[in-house]
Give the backbone structure.
Amino acid sequence: MVRMLRMGRRRGRSAGVVLPTVLITCATLLVAPAALADDATPAPTPTESATPAPTPTPAPAPSGPPALPPLTMPTALGSWCTALFPPDTVKKERKKAQNLMNGHVQLSKGGTYYLTEHPNWRPQAGTDTSGDRHVNSLDWALPLLYRGVRKQNPVLVDRFRQLLYYWIYDHRGSRAYWTDASIYGGLRTQALVCAAQTLNDPYISAAALRDSQTMIRGFRSHATISLGTNNTDLIRQTGALAAYCWVNDAPGKARAWQNLVSISRGVIHDDGSDVEGSPGYAMYIEKLLTNIESAAATCGIPADPIPALRGQLYQFVAQAVRPDFKLESLGDTVNQSLRDTFGVGDWRADWIRSGGATGTPPTPVYTAFDGGYVFGRAGWNPQPGGPDTFYSLRFSSDRPRTAHTHDDGTAMTLYSRGVEWVGDPGPYRYDNGSSLRWYMMSRPAHSAVTVSGVARTRAGGVKKVTAKSDWQAGGNDTTCVADRTWGSVSVTRCTTYVRSVDVFIVTDHMTATKIKGKKARKAAAPRVVTERFQLPPGIGATGNGDLLTLQAGDKRMDMYRSGPGGWSVQAARKGSNVGWFTGKWGEKLPGAVVSRAVPLSVRGDAQTAVTVFVPRTDGESVPVTIDANGVTVTRGAVTVTTPLP
């Protein structure tokens, strides 16, 4: 038993925290000898025979997992089941259980995994990278337990037990990194605690306790705010907390809770923005914090400060929602409505979740967040036919980036008149073998700036240098971000939203240092700055010269330009990753890219490129002039000149 519970060193990590003695004691008491004994014949005691006992012959190693012991049918799920995995509707539970009995594991975004009687747990063609790893989470098997208990069906419960026995036996030794890492180990620990408590099964109990050690051992920070963490660390420590609370281990329980508080403070900035670079993951973190509060209640400990941290998320997510009440698809976020349970009872969350039917909208219409986001809008209650413009701009978070953050510094999006005119490609899917996945995470896939002919170093990131607004008086928003990742070329992108005439201005200031030495200049690769504006599916583009007009139905968006470089439009096509967008998860839809290239001299150069976006209806005329005075726009009877930042 002790051998099964002992953990060695993980890849690149020390053994870390030693499981408290009380936990090992509890595990030892829970495990039946028949399930885990070494099958060695015990020597007789001296009272049984005066003749020396013969040397015992070791029994052969077992060829498979222990046989399932007779089932004592549970009449209810354990409290940790309902706390960690709230039951689905009866209809969904029944369907999932039926699929599992037919050998189909529906791994949501990860695809479909096909089970044999004794699965080999290897990657399959029907799952992506995430799905292949999620097979080790085991939470997907819980519908068998839930449905079996609800209907008092021992066949379902025994299939559930058998799958867990197979997995535990097949992974009883050293494990591949991703088996225990990230979300997969955390969800499995939670699922095993649920199963062990409900079934009182010693084999499953030992596995749950082994995993709890791995989860708590994998996090060694004692900082008040843990930097470099993400949502998966919350899942892992929630699993550890459940296990330690279940066996009533006070030191382990205290350590797991300390970890959860530190990580929660690390994944949420003080202003409520997330560290994932993805508003969809902020919504997911809110769900995880709700689960942590439920776990605290089940454990009988105070949940502070988790409810306050969860409340901070609502002010951020509300600002990331477009006027059509969908999240902007930044980072690994798909354009989506908020889930029905998001922030129930919070006035901002109620407003955006209900589409403005209940609750109250936030007050600010311009916000800059430490997570690397700027959001601005015409207002929260656009009148029919009036401006409903919404935009975003990205820069680097002041905390370490995560796997769900794209290389999208300087990227912007623009929504107006009910249309997303300039968009973000989204995540596609979590498939490490997909070139489209990797492309959609890269800088050229975003409405951003790239520079060719230079060596790039991303360590410096994209810094916010200006963020100001006179929105309270109906004035302009002005934001500037500096991209210093391109070696000898510096780019500062400034955006200005002019509320009075509802136009959006993008100004890119480009500076290239002189390449020293005649030979070096002659041999240097051309340095070219490329601006890209990604057009979502359904947006057409016509025009030439300084004016390009985007079309969607009877809506129009004019794009005026000044400075070097002309427009180029490239539609998505088969065999290329350029111009594709994420529709639903894993679905790619064809869009297009408007770009222009600005060459920079090897002798040093400074260029400014200006793009003015003018939303309008078909037939409406909104003339624009770009000159030394700035941008002059006439809409109706109003003429406004805005200096360039």
About this structure: The chain has two domains: 2-267, 406-535+564-642.
